[in-house]
Amino acid sequence: MKRLAILTSGGDAPGMNAAIRAITLRALQEDIEVIGVIGGYNGLLSQEYIQLTNATVDDIIGLGGTILKSARCRQMKEEHGPLLAAKALDAMDVDALIVIGGDGSFRGCSAILNHWQGNIIGVPGTIDNDINGTDQTIGFWTAVDTAVECIDKIRDTANAFERLFIVEVMGRDCGFIAVESAVASGAEHIICKEIISNESEFLENLVQGLNSAITAHRTTSYVIVVAENSLSKTAQELSHYLEQHTNTDCKVAILGYLQRGGSPVASDRVLATKLGVAAINTVLSRNSGVMVGTEHDQISYTPFSQTSYKNTSNQALIRRLNDLNFNLS
């Protein structure tokens, strides 16, 4: 093993730089040359990269985003894309590739392996926490922390005006950010698709619960945390619907890309460091085609073919809500 390439792909996540740092430092300990591909798979196809050294990564553990930049690569979804990527790796004289990203990035890894004999290892970096084979993904807890900070501030305004607020958080098709941020901020209601079997019935129960709480003057404000794509209605449409059925002023706050930025919290830095070191150890063992993750606080290894969405119906998330006896209505 002489030369290793690192790339970050897909949506950026706080802690990606910490992973780049750990991978680089561990590889250099083994006298492996490290290069960083710029701009995800696009940079790989164009063979754009920089040399990574101790000095390059020394102070990046607390930086948000990724020093290697990221992108979504349409060409990798085309039939010839993975073959071109394999040829680029050979042209760059690379023996192993470590990809930090989500399930889409790992599908790219799997496709390249059909044309390339080197080692490819995945490291889960996405705020959504939607990767099978790992309990946590890099960036998730920072995204939750950011969401909680925002919800706490929104609560101040909600209390001041005695308003109902809908706060939409990211997560794509996964409700983990919504659940954790709602619980941590004391939100009155959670909406995520994992707990909705019938949308009409769910909304009826939501309205009934809100009206009962409003009539009882249980609190001066109500915060509903919604995972994006949970309903057929947009957040604004849900706001109008609730105003009509509760006779209460309802406002919307969409947190969006705020959750992807910022300095990673300690838990994400530690996780990124742990997985970065594990990735190099996996490369050295000549293992390939797997994502390194963590399950029950132990390093786990999951083939790329099995890294798509966590539990499809997210049974772990539903159990968490039931354990907390949280009000879902």
- Unreliable parts: none
Average of per-residue pLDDT values: 92
> How would you describe the shape?
elongated
Largest sheet: 7 strands, mixed
N-to-C order of helices and strands: EHEHEHHEHEHEHEHEHEHEEH
Structural class: alpha/beta
Largest sheet strand order: 3-2-1-4-5-10-11
Radius of gyration: 22 Å
Q: N-to-C terminal Cα separation, in Å?
A: 56 Å
Strand content: 15-25%
Can you count the helices? Answer: 11
Fraction in helix: 40-55%
> Count of DSSP E strands?
11
Describe, in plain words, how this protein is organized in 3D.
With about 325 residues, the protein is an alpha/beta fold. Helix content is about 40%, strand content about 20%. It has 11 helices and 11 strands. It has helices at about 15-30, 40-45, 55, 80-90, 105-115, 140-160, 175-185, 200-215, 235-245, 265-285, 315-325; strands at about 5-10, 35, 50, 95-100, 120-125, 165-170, 190, 220-225, 250-255, 290-295, 300-305. It has a 7-stranded mixed beta sheet with strand order 3-2-1-4-5-10-11, with helices on both faces. Helix 1 (about 15-30) packs parallel to helix 10 and helix 6 packs across helix 7 (about 175-185). The mean pLDDT is about 90.
Topology (elements, then pairings):
Layout: E1 3-8, H1 16-29, E2 33-37, H2 40-45, E3 49-52, H3 54-57, H4 81-91, E4 96-101, H5 103-113, E5 119-124, H6 140-161, E6 164-169, H7 176-185, E7 189-191, H8 199-215, E8 222-227, H9 235-246, E9 250-254, H10 266-284, E10 290-295, E11 298-303, H11 315-324
